[in-house]
Design a protein that fits this description.
8 helices; 52% helix
Length: 222
């Protein structure tokens, strides 16, 4: 039976009804972010915000990523206002930054990875055994399992996706490249409908988990 796959990569942000503002209690009271212009603008602001946070401290971002509760650490909360304002300036003050906690987790994981490994990528993942995923660790087990499979099917393509600008033609092209990997990872007869942000974010988070995973010796090694 031929595998049926419908990949719907809607470049949209999280459902506004379930969203909340980024936790920046000390932001400048005179700061006016402007009106929301659309999901593409929002995704780019989130990306710029995460890049700024990572530049200011990789260790504090890693501490946040290792927490299962999704809450910002005190250090990140203190840095968030300036990075938020910087991100809005980069985007021309056109977007309202909203999102669930996973929005920031995914974006920060991606920014941390790129800061550490750059365009060259994380490298070969064959020495990493299958990840042990757990909902108790704040992970979306099903989505992370899909992401892990995609990474192992096309490691270079998965990393290249993370190097693209959010909501860009380059991102769309990389999703097209990853379509065969996604087809190989979806159960036969299944239909996958997933927002691009969450697929990309799960790949970033899974790569981050791989950096924490043990390595195994190649078969036959002594």
């Amino acid at each position: 039976m031929r595998t049926i796959l419908a990949i719907v990569l809607a470049l949209t942000a999280a459902n506004p009804a379930a969203a909340q503002r980024v936790p920046v209690p000390d932001k400048d009271p005179d700061f006016e972010p402007g009106k929301k212009e659309g999901a593409k603008d929002t995704r780019r602001v989130v990306q710029a915000f995460a890049n700024c946070m990572v530049k200011r401290g990789m260790s504090s971002v890693a501490e946040f990523l290792d927490r299962p509760d999704g809450a910002f650490t005190r250090t990140l909360r203190s840095r968030a206002p300036d990075c938020l304002i910087d991100a809005y300036d980069d985007a021309g003050d056109v977007a309202m930054l909203k999102g669930e906690s996973v929005t920031y987790r995914y974006a920060l994981a991606e920014a941390w990875l790129l800061r550490k490994f750059g365009d060259a990528g994380f490298g070969d993942v064959s020495a990493i055994p299958p990840l042990t995923l757990s909902p108790a660790s704040g992970q979306n087990v099903g989505l992370n399992a899909l992401a892990e499979c995609v990474i192992r099917q096309d490691t270079a393509g998965s990393w290249a996706l993370l190097t693209t600008e959010a909501a860009s033609p380059e991102e769309q092209a990389m999703f097209q490249r990853l379509t065969p990997a996604m087809q190989a990872c979806v159960h036969q007869g299944s239909t996958l409908k997933m927002q691009a942000f969450f697929v990309r974010g799960a790949i970033a988070e899974t790569y981050y988990l791989m950096t924490k995973a043990p390595r195994v010796a190649p078969a036959g090694a002594k």
